[in-house]
Amino acid sequence: MPELILTLDAGTTGLKCSVFTREGAVVGACTAAYGVNYYGEGKAEQTAEQFYAAAVQAVRQLLPAFDPKAVTVIGLSGTMNGCLPVDEEGSALYPNMIHADTRAAAEVEEIRSVIDDETYYARTANRPAVNYTLPKLLWLRKHEPQVYGKIRTVLNTKDAIYGFLTGNFRRTDYSDASLTGMFRIADGQWDTELLRELDIRCDILPEIVPSHNTEGRLAKKAAELLGLPAGIPVSMGAGDGSCATHGAGVALPGEAYCNVGSSAWLAMLADHPAQDPERRVFSFADMDGVHFNICGTVQCGAAAFDWAAEKLLLGHKPEKADFAMLEKAAMEAPVGSRGIFFLPTLMGERTPWWTPDAKGTLIGMTPGHDRKEVIRAVYEGVVQALHQCGAVMEENGLRYRSLSLIGGGASSGVWPQMFADAFGLPVTLPAEPRAATSLGAAAAAGVGAGLYTSYAEAASFVTKKAELTPDMEKYAAYQDHFEVYRSLYGRICSAYEVISRYQERHV
Fold first, then answer.
1. Pairing of strands 238-239, 71-78
2. Residue of 303, 273, 324 whose CA lies nearest to 125
3. Does the residue 209 lie in any domain?
4. How far apart are the first and last CA of the chain?
5. 406 closest CA partner among 251, 257, 239, 240
6. In CATH, what number is assigned to the domain containing residue 126?
7. Is 147 inside any structural domain?
8. pLDDT tens-digit profile of 288-310?
9. Strand 427-430 to strand 402-406: parallel, antiparallel, or no bridges (unpaired)?
10. What residue numbers bound the domain in which 9 lies?
11. Cβ contact 346:362 at 8 Å
12. SS3 of 255, please?
């Protein structure tokens, strides 16, 4: 009987159930969609019940594609930076305040009142920010004191699913813990000193275990709901960022990948967290609890391209044929688009400026330019934004030897070669670039179940579709282009501030 790995990956808009062979082949996949409840004041919530119902729906729908008795282990992944308080029985006391929730701005300032940004970054390898769990907990204490007083544990998305499957609602893994804003990156423990200064109860924090921990077993009640045999080992799993790293085939320090989705990021594995003096990149623990993911994040990646395609270039939502036309036009334009530059900063920017004021910018047009060069400039803007993340890493002595490309952008007919040419590195395209988080969850589960001896062995089963080599002449041209690109923000940031104030009054 084949050894199968079943994974549950809870994303922002749905939960994906996938089944893999030990060799990484996809037996089947199915997604159960759900929504996000957006309210005023930056609130973005999902309920635990949404995750549980989606898990049941997705597994049940996929059951005809595999033999349930062949499932050796279950792996988990989910969105990070959440705040889901549960009681002693594991019942949710309040909706999950997900990564997109920004209501806790005042609580960020409360954190800053007891610890300065430099010390906070040194201890957590992150900036104090509204996205993290810590300010959301402070918000709950202030605005929902009855909820806060009943909290037994505060969880992230995949932790709640782990509890639903196993009955244990008191665990998390190193990756999710390290992006809560209350984790000491140096020794891998909760920062109890900081929590005491903020008067946060330390007893509500879950136990931290490696992602490949498989002590949990599928409980009878959950097994009946899912249609699976009870007793299957359930790995702790990891946050989607850490899972994507391993699903991209990255397993050793010095390897890196770019995820080009709605937002985009460049991440690499390292032996130590980054300590950038300007705090432009951040770090979080890897699934193994030993290594670290160093990450630079672009607020708008493919989302910026999609906006430009629909609102600027086409005038309607693009279809498949439109993308083919745009790609053809971009490839007919020269490197650097003859001096047209696009900054994909439609929603502000994280790395390297960490500002909400930056605006999307298309600059450099003259009467001599044509539409093809505008189209290419949009593609190049996303690539150079991620190249900028890589440059920050290199400034901190973090060098990577290779680059894997995942997410929807990996399916582009333009971006993969453009990344190779702009970075001057070989770019690997996995065969399943949209399945990276599920593959990462499978890697952790497989290591925990003994199907793989190491994460490196698990990564060897990530099938490569292609490896692109850089055109060094184009690389030289992109170096010149990049120097201009990275200087633009500093030259026009004061204009962004003026525009932001104007838009606050009139938009």
1. parallel
2. 273
3. yes
4. 61
5. 257
6. 3.30.420.40
7. yes
8. 889 999 999 999 999 999 999 99
9. parallel
10. 4-236
11. no
12. strand
Asked, for residue 68, whether it belongs to a domain, the answer is: yes
SS3 call for 203: helix
* DSSP state letters, 4-73: EEEEEEE-SSEEEEEEEETT--EEEEEEEE---EE-STT-EEE-HHHHHHHHHHHHHHHGGGS-GGGEEE
Q: What is the pLDDT of residues 34-51, one digit of tens each?
A: 999 998 889 999 999 999
Structure letter (DSSP) for residue 348: B
Strand 189-190, strand 153-155: pairing: unpaired
Overall size of the chain counted in residues: 507
> Can you give the pLDDT at residue 335?
98
Enclosing H/E stretch for 330: helix 320-332
Q: How many CB atoms sit inside 10 A of residue 162's CB?
A: 29
Residue corresponding to tokens 């600027």: 312
Three-class SS of residue 103?
coil
Residue 507 lies in a domain: no
Beta strand 341-343 pairing with 26-33: unpaired
Cross-strand pairs, 362: 342
- pLDDT at res. 160: 98
The residue type found at 153 is T
- Helices H, strands E: what count in the chain? 17, 25
What lies within 8 Å, CB to CB, of 20 at 6+ separation is 4, 5, 7, 26, 27, 438, 439, 442
Distance (Å) of CA 403 to CA 255, 399, 461? 7, 11, 17
pTM as predicted: 0.93
C-beta separation of 240 from 11 below 8 A: yes
Peptide bond just before 433 cis, omega within 30 deg: no
CA distance 273 to 268: 11
- Residues 495 and 481: their CA atoms lie apart, in Å, by 22
Q: CB of 335 within 8 A of CB of 377?
A: no
The total of structural domains in the chain comes to 1
The number of angstroms, rounded, from the C-alpha of 144 to the middle of its chain's C-alpha atoms is: 29
